[in-house]
Specification:
Layout lengths: L6 E12 L5 E17 L3 E4 L4 E12 L14 E4 L2 E10 L6 E11 L1
Antiparallel strand pairs: 1-2, 1-5, 2-4, 3-4, 4-7, 5-6, 6-7
């Protein structure tokens, strides 16, 4: 059965910009929009340094792209849906024909 790729997500890659004090600041650069099926797993909560952080795992399915292509998600990238951010943890082929990729991701919401 084919996934329902009905949700547009922005694929973002990390970058670094000099902060003027000899260090760097992490930035995120949009690489394009992908259509995805987003399925939530079971969440949990942990205490961060100053706030509670809710951790929810997601299984995000997208169309496959060749290894090395800028359209293929990688584990150091993330998906954005408006203010929501899904950090990509792993990427694997979903089917033997390699038509779709499954990205396991984590949404972190501070509050």
């Amino acid at each position: 059965m084919s996934p329902a790729l009905t949700r547009p997500l922005v694929l973002e890659a990390p970058g670094r910009v000099a902060d003027g004090a000899g260090g760097f600041t992490e930035t995120w650069e949009a690489r394009g929009v992908v259509w995805a099926e987003v399925l939530a797993g079971t969440g949990r909560e942990r205490n961060g340094a100053e706030v509670a952080v809710a951790l929810t795992p997601y299984r995000i399915t997208v169309r496959a792209a060749p290894v090395g292509s800028g359209a293929r998600p990688r584990a150091d990238e993330r998906f954005r849906d408006g203010a929501r951010v899904f950090r990509i943890l792993t990427v694997a082929e979903r089917d033997p024909g390699g038509r779709y990729l499954i990205c396991t991701a984590r949404e972190e919401v501070s509050g």
